[in-house]
């Protein structure tokens, strides 16, 4: 019994709790829970109803790409999804429609957690990674859209393409197994 207690104490010292918490794991994004998917669908549907009542004209098609994220390196995929999640969480934070507040709280919490998990992984795996030409071009297109489009356009694009972003997140989480 004494030996077991000493062994446990030594293992605890060898692996501090903070080190275990800060590890990079995107495993939970391989397959999303049905309740998370339902919350995302509810948010998207609700937003679609709000959009029908508005008169938005958008020029930028941010999520229409000629390439698939699986074609990117693992680190590029992480950068892509982080940029997509940054866009979505920023846009959800800007929404001021009171009827939408309740609908988007759960998805926002989930997406914010995924964003933080990606940040940790990127800091650990490649803090100074430079994006490929494909990804760099898309990131520039995103920055231009944020500056030139009215807020409603990136907002609509991000929310209406939330499932594409979730697929991209899954691809990043699968790392080399994403095809």
Automatic annotation (TrEMBL):
Keyword list, A-Z: Antiviral defense, Cytokine, Secreted, Signal
InterPro entries assigned: IFN-lambda_sf, INF_lambda
GO biological process assignments: cell surface receptor signaling pathway via JAK-STAT; defense response to virus; innate immune response; positive regulation of immune response
Primary localisation category: secreted
Gene Ontology, cellular component aspect: extracellular space
Keyword Nucleotide-binding: no
GO MF annotation: an example: cytokine activity
Location(s), subcellular: Secreted
Keyword Signal: yes
Gene3D superfamilies in UniProt: Interferon lambda
Family membership: Belongs to the lambda interferon family.
PANTHER family per UniProt: INTERFERON LAMBDA-2-RELATED (PTHR31943:SF1), INTERLEUKIN-28 AND 29 (PTHR31943)
Name under which the protein is recorded: IFNL3 protein
């Amino acid at each position: 019994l004494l030996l077991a207690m000493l062994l446990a104490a030594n293992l605890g010292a060898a692996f501090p709790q903070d080190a275990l918490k800060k590890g990079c794991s995107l495993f939970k994004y391989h397959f999303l829970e049905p309740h998370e998917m339902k919350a995302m669908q509810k948010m998207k549907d609700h937003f679609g109803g709000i959009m029908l009542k508005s008169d938005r004209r958008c020029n930028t098609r941010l999520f229409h790409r000629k390439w698939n994220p699986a074609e990117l390196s693992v680190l590029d995929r992480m950068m892509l999804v982080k940029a997509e999640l940054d866009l979505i969480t920023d846009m959800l934070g800007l929404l001021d429609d009171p009827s939408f507040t309740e609908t988007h709280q759960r998805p926002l919490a989930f997406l914010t957690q995924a964003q933080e998990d990606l940040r940790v992984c990127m800091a650990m795996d490649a803090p100074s990674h430079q994006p490929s030409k494909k990804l760099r071009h898309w990131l520039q297109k995103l920055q231009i859209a944020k500056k030139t489009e009215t807020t409603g356009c990136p907002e609509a694009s991000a929310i209406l393409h939330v499932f594409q972003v979730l697929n991209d997140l899954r691809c990043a989480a699968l790392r080399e197994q994403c095809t």
